[in-house]
Amino acid sequence: xxxxxxxxxxxxxxxxxxxxxxxxxxxxxxxxxxxxxxxxxxxxxxxxxxxxxxxxxxxxxxxxxxxxxxxxxxxxxxxxxxxx
Length: 84
What we know:
The structure is a single chain. This protein is about 35% helix and about 25% strand. The radius of gyration is 13 Å and the shape is globular. The protein has helices at about 5-15, 45-55, 60-65, and strands spanning about 20-25, 35-40, 75, 80-84. It has one domain (about 5-84). Helix 1 crosses helix 2 (about 45-55). The protein is an alpha+beta fold and about 80 residues long. Strands 1-2-4-3 form a 4-stranded antiparallel β-sheet, with helices on one face.
């Protein structure tokens, strides 16, 4: 995940009243020491709904503006998950 994508998703979460936490140094066990940006969220479904709602409020084409969620990966962190 890029910094811009992470910043966008953080803004979406905040606008929707969702709790989230941004990580700039997340490293999955299969990343072999590399790190990336990530956002800690409750569920991907909540984030997707919040993103679509945000884009509709901005009167922009959702499909043109929404990040490519298929390129992101997730990892379970107990109660929460990280999207990276």
